[in-house]
TrEMBL record:
GO terms for molecular function: 4-hydroxythreonine-4-phosphate dehydrogenase activity; metal ion binding; NAD binding. InterPro entries: PdxA_fam. The keyword Repressor does not apply. This is 4-hydroxythreonine-4-phosphate dehydrogenase PdxA. Keywords: Metal-binding, NAD, Oxidoreductase. NCBIfam families: pdxA. Its EC number is 1.1.1.262.
Length: 347
């Protein structure tokens, strides 16, 4: 089996956001070229602009096919899509033009992976409002990837140190999220996170399943979802041989998981999983009034291709200022390389 470093396609995200900035900054991290062969996918002029306002010592190598990449530290290989005129770019603004370019860039990266030209994909942040303004009716990256890879069963996994979280539902209203707490979907999430943990090198992952209601309903005092949907899913998972516990009150589950008791967690809805995750990975600098570190990786499970991402937003308010942290992007690249390596080892 060929043992080369994987070629990873790294998108710029929304061109008006911090996405291009964190991508070029990530290429200066000492570990990136040790674990992969990175190719930036997007607008070469936009990446060039980010290099300039950040004052980075980095050259651009514009390419139209992956075979022309140099993979040399100090040179950013850019698969140049040339979808826009940079003179039309309005940094820090939500526009249909930027949303359209961001969307088309994601689709191109997926196409490169499906064609086998790259070994995995890493995505910068997109803005859901700009995507919608451009007429692309998707809730986010996860749904775009599922659609363009024809994937029916998928999930969003968040990873930061010991904390690994999958969600029963993500981009829906809280009222809808309660209705989506169903046995079959919970079982699906247990399967997906168990498989993901194994791909990350955890041989026998222990999975904790959160309750939906306060105190996991306290025996039915505060709701019925635990008794009717969550517990039956856990019991069925146990019958199928999964190492799983639940339903566990969320305010107990996540502190234990952070401490290493559980290798993976099943959250019932978006914020239930995202809040503990971002509490661990995001660190605010009170004196400077900005984030000093933004860590954490978003991995889409169930796809035929590798997809990891930063799990922060477009941060339009600081776009173009050169102060965005590339920590999450570096981690996303490292995780994509790790997933590819483990996949190769298991072939």
């Amino acid at each position: 089996m060929e043992n080369r470093k994987p070629i990873l396609g790294i998108t710029m995200g929304d061109p008006a956001s911090i996405g291009p900035e964190v991508a070029v900054k990530a290429l200066l991290d000492s570990n990136v070229y040790e674990v992969c062969q990175p190719v930036l996918v997007g607008e070469a002029d936009v990446f060039e602009q980010a290099i300039q306002f950040c004052g980075l010592d980095l050259k651009i190598n514009r390419i139209s096919k992956i075979a022309d990449a140099k993979f040399e530290k100090g040179t950013a290989d850019v698969f140049d899509l040339n979808y826009m005129n940079i003179a039309d770019l309005k940094m820090g603004e939500i526009t249909a033009e930027a949303g359209d370019v961001a969307f088309r860039t994601v689709v191109k990266n997926i196409e490169l992976a499906l064609a086998g030209e790259i070994d995995g994909t890493v995505t910068g942040p997109i803005n859901k409002e700009s995507i919608q303004k451009a007429g692309h009716v998707f809730a986010g990256h996860t749904e775009i990837y599922a659609h363009y890879t024809d994937t029916k069963k998928y999930g969003m996994l968040l990873v930061e140190e010991n904390l690994r979280v999958i969600h029963v539902s993500t981009h829906v209203s809280l009222r809808q999220a309660c209705d989506l707490v169903k046995k079959d979907r919970i079982l699906e999430c247990v399967f997906l996170i168990d498989e993901a943990c194994k791909k990350l090198g955890i041989a026998n992952p222990k999975i904790g399943v959160a309750g939906l209601n306060p105190h996991a309903s306290d025996g039915g005092l505060f709701g019925y979802e635990e008794e009717q949907e969550i517990l039956p899913a856990v019991q069925e998972a146990l019958k199928r041989g999964f190492n799983v516990e639940g339903p566990i009150p969320a305010d107990t589950l996540f502190p234990k998981a952070i401490g290493g008791v559980y290798d993976g967690c099943v959250a019932m809805y978006h914020d239930q999983g995202h809040i503990p995750f971002k509490t661990v990975g995001f660190n605010w600098d009170q004196a400077k009034g900005q984030m000093k570190s933004v860590r954490g990786v978003n991995i889409t499970l169930g796809l035929p291709i590798i997809r990891t991402s930063v799990d922060h937003g477009t941060a339009m308010e600081i776009a173009g200022k050169g102060i965005a942290s590339p920590d999450a992007m570096v981690l996303a690249i490292e995780y994509a390389a790790r997933l590819h390596r483990n996949k190769q080892d298991n072939l």
